[in-house]
Amino acid sequence: MIFKRVRSDLFRCSGKIDYKSFCFRLLFDKGFKFIFFFRYSSKFKRTTPLGFILYFFYKRYSVKYGFQIPTSVVVGPGLSLPHFGGIVINSKAKIGSNCNILQGVTIGNVKNGKKKGTPVIGNNVFLGPNAVIVGGISVGNNVLVSGNSFITENVPDNSLVFGNPARILVKDFPSLPYLHNSIQI
After folding, report:
1. Measured CA distances, 47 to 1, 8, 9, 60, 121 (Å)
2. CA pair distance 122, 175, nearest whole angstrom
3. What SS3 class is residue 88?
4. CA distance 169 to 176
5. Using alpha carbons only, how large is the chain's radius of gyration in Å?
6. Domains of the chain by range and CATH?
7. Catalytic annotation, pick one of 75, 83, 117, 179
8. What is the value of pTM for the model shown?
9. Is 138 exposed, middle or buried (0-12, 13-18, 19+ CB in 10 A)?
10. DSSP-based three-state secondary structure for 74
């Protein structure tokens, strides 16, 4: 299961799945390097020697590249982090397959009130730079969230979201041109 997710992540980053691409991405692609150690450190317990080593590298790259994504976050296959820096995701968030998350994105919770909870992000979602998604809301499938958007309401499938406060335009597959090397779900 975890191996298939890493293969999907590799395909999203490089467009191919082979040993040479894997080695190159693991050495030079900051986003893939973090995703690799994120996936494996969430699978192995820190009490084992291998789990401790994986968790060490996960924490190291988390701090070095600015990815605050706890290992408890549920992330589907095909995650892409093409730019590093300032990504903060709540530990109870759920993210679907084929998602791109750019720099500065925050996915956070609300502790009380009508919107209490943590967001659920669907499949084939593109989160632009500095987008903020907070509260117990859901972002549907095939959604494009433009940069600097602030979302506190549910977003239906096939939507384009922009602005602060967020405005929603229903449009057929707006995220499709931005999701390169998508995997079949």
Report:
1. 21, 28, 26, 18, 31
2. 12
3. strand
4. 15
5. 16
6. 2-178 (2.160.10.10)
7. 83
8. 0.94
9. middle
10. strand
In the structure encoding, which two tokens stand for residue 79, read together? 């995650």
52-79 pLDDT, tens per residue?
A: 999 999 999 999 999 999 999 999 999 9
83 is catalytic: yes
Strand order in the sheet with 106-108: 67-68, 87-89, 106-108, 132-134, 150-151
| Alpha helices (H) in the chain, listed in sequence order | 2-14, 19-28, 30-43, 49-65
pLDDT category at 3 given cuts 50, 70, 90 is confident
Q: Residue 164 and residue 2: Cα distance in Å, rounded? A: 37
On the question of a cis peptide bond just before residue 165, with omega within 30 degrees of 0, the verdict is yes
Q: Which residue has the tokens 């192995």?
A: 44
Within 10 angstroms of residue 18's Cβ, the number of other Cβ atoms is: 10
